[in-house]
What we know:
Elements: H1 2-25, E1 30-32, E2 49-51, E3 58-62, E4 67-70, H2 76-84, E5 88-89, H3 101-106, H4 114-117, E6 124-130, E7 136-139, H5 145-151, E8 160-167, E9 169-170, E10 174-182, H6 185-195, E11 202-209, E12 212-221, H7 239-249, E13 252-258, H8 259-263, H9 274-280, H10 287-292, H11 299-312, E14 319-327, H12 331-341, E15 347-353, E16 373-382, H13 390-403, E17 407-408, H14 418-424, H15 427-436, H16 446-450
Parallel strand pairs: 1-2
Antiparallel strand pairs: 3-4, 4-8, 5-9, 6-7, 6-8, 10-12, 10-13, 11-12, 11-15, 14-16, 14-17, 15-16
Amino acid sequence: MEQVKNLHDSDVKRIQNEIKGFFQQGKKVKIYRNGTHSMRPFNFSKETAVDASTLTRIIEVNTAENYVLVEPNVPMNTLVDATLKFGLAPPVVTEFPAITVGGAVQGAAAESGTLKYGLFHSCCLEFEMVLGNGDYITASPTENSDLFWGTACSYGTIGVMTLIKLRLIPIKNFVHLTYFTARNFDDFIKLMQNKRNDALTFIDGIMLSKNLGVVMVGNFSDKKNLPISTYTKAADEWFYLDAKNIASQYDTFEKLIPTRDYFFRYDRGAFWIGEEFFTFFKIPFNRLTRFLTNPIMSTKVLYRMWHSLTYTLKQSKKLFVQDCIMPEDKISDIYNFEDNELNIYPLWVLPVKNMKLLSKDDRLSPDFLGAEFCFNLGIYGGYKKDDATFIDTNRLLERKVYELGGRKVLYAHAYYAPDEFWRIYDAKWYNHLREKYHANKTFPDIYEKTKVSTPRVRLVGGC
């Protein structure tokens, strides 16, 4: 561990020196991490970026106090593989294995553990950061707490995160998952509302069509006399297709899923976006073709292919990918808007703990809302209208979400005008934070970082 820590310290000093040089020149720069799920085009140059790409190490898994010290570029599957050896895991694990720990913190990552534990960054205990003037600082809920909460969901616009201290929880070998079928969206939401008060570790749902949905709830479990399903092998069915098959046959169904398979159950097929690949290339969509194309059906590969198509065949407008976090009493309104304007199915629905209840400084979180309880509506699929209307429809969604008191997650296409954006987010607070921690002279602000200047695919957040 000492050798790894020395390498870490050496990288941090180099990053400090690079940033000090940019700060003295008064030059704004980006943070280069050499590959996350972010689909923002980024050609690295030492003249325009801080090189943080070497921060790829797990420093320590502490089994006495149940935490891990991890550098920001460690992918989620690498982190989970390291902690599972000790019967531990982060409370919230992103569903895509190649999302990095830093990307999950900076990009508002959520998953089925979010109702119980909050967004990914709320499971963090401390950050080590290099500020815009090259200073080194640590931030936690009790030390520099405004920086701790303010850098979360900031997309790398406050400072360079160099180390994360992340809470771990005990886990078991399986997740015992129960499926509940709903025949319309109102019943689907009522099921989630009824289940949220149960002693659950996991809850999420898929609205498969207007007349079929499935709510899935689970807890860690030892092996029981139940069917066992896996989702990471080539011969396995995609998770959402398996859930659809269950919902089509049963009102209630129970099974066991190995814990690692559960964490990354949506990776193969990227939820269901991979189905668009088959449509685009006119390939039959069946069990055999899914098996044969499995090497390119991971989220990481799929998104890179779509990114490539953006520039070679101008396909960015074909995918509509947005997450909208809404107050509980407005989730049906945004669903009805989606059904009428987009009619994209399946939809991912996730109950979310309100971050405003945790800290007044977590102001960039998409669930920093006035409501006591929130839902995320994930809209992922092929755009069915004329390509020329793609931006207009995105703008309609942005206005509707704002009108209903919700927030979009900023990893995806964002077309806000500056005045619209800063009506949603607290510009005075944000600019004060950037000035206090020397970010305003060195890093682009969050509006600059997340706005779409030209249509392109940007599917999963990071920094």
